[in-house]
Amino acid sequence: MSVYDQADPHRFKRRGLLFVLSSPSGAGKSTIARKLLADEPDLYMSVSATTRSIRPGEQDGKDYRFVGLETFRDMVANHEFLEWAHVFGERYGTPKAPVDAMLKSGHDVLFDIDWQGAQQLHQIAGGDVVRVFILPPSMEELHERLKRRATDSEEIIDRRMARAANEISHWDGYDYVLVNDDVEDCFAKVKTILAAERLKRSRQTGLIGFIRGLTR
Ligand code: ADP
Ligand code: 5GP
């Protein structure tokens, strides 16, 4: 076997990475996240806690942990969050313990969080964080997608559209920015980013032992 073949990243112990997907609501990050999780057995989703109410079709503990304001405040006071933020007048936070456990067991973790969360994670975990921002091809298409998704009232859709420009203004806080025009094309790009980031030398902690063995 050539040295090149042996450089398969799965042969080496690797540092887990924190893979963040953000976008204005409706641009397609949940769609991309679902496809990624189905395709990547080493990738686990971070389930956030939120004070917002559960929507039809959502499952407590799977989509979010739905908690009351008091519980959320207690979790903040007990330092249970890696990061948390106000979004759409509600509170959203990333519980710390499950992320630590997933990273410790050698898995990568996927986050569907907003720009405030991406910024906080980057402050805490720096080089272990990969931030990807997904843009819609146009604001008209964003509006159409929110309507087609049919999960929100017209009033909520208007609020999401009103916030979209502000969210997009944080595009420069990300490592990668993609336009989700064709979903398969965008998904392929996200997979390429994940694959390349996993191969980074700094993440392949087992590489040193391999190099020593090679040159002994
Ligand atoms: P987000 O998680 O960013 O709020 P979703 O993933 O829920 O967005 O996508 C919003 C809607 O747009 C969904 O109905 C989804 O099926 C659809 N959608 C996602 N990506 C595309 C795309 N590239 N082209 C057309 N529709 C899309
Ligand atoms: P939704 O209510 O539509 O599920 O999510 C609204 C927004 O909150 C999305 O932009 C989503 O990325 C963001 N969000 C979800 N969970 C978290 C979290 O734990 N932290 C932060 N900062 N944002 C979150």
Summarize this entry quickly.
With 216 residues, the chain is α/β, with parallel strands linked by helices. The protein is 44% helix and 19% strand. It has a domain at 18-46 and 107-214: 3-Layer(aba) Sandwich (Rossmann fold), CATH 3.40.50.300.
Question: Explain this structure to me?
Answer:
- With 216 residues, this protein is α/β, with parallel strands linked by helices.
- It has a domain at 18-46 and 107-214: P-loop containing nucleotide triphosphate hydrolases (Rossmann fold, 3-Layer(aba) Sandwich).
- The chain contains nine helices and nine strands.
- It has a five-stranded parallel beta sheet, with helices on both faces. It has a four-stranded mixed beta sheet with strand order 4-3-6-5.
- The longest helix is centred in the C-terminal third of the chain and has 16 residues, at 183-198.
- The protein is globular.
- Mean pLDDT is 91; it is low at 1-7.
- The protein binds adenosine-5'-diphosphate and guanosine-5'-monophosphate.
- Guanosine-5'-monophosphate binds at residues 22, 25, 48, 52, 83, 85, 87-88, 92-94, 112-114, 116-117.
- Residues 23, 25-31, 145, 148-149, 180, 182-183 line the site of adenosine-5'-diphosphate.
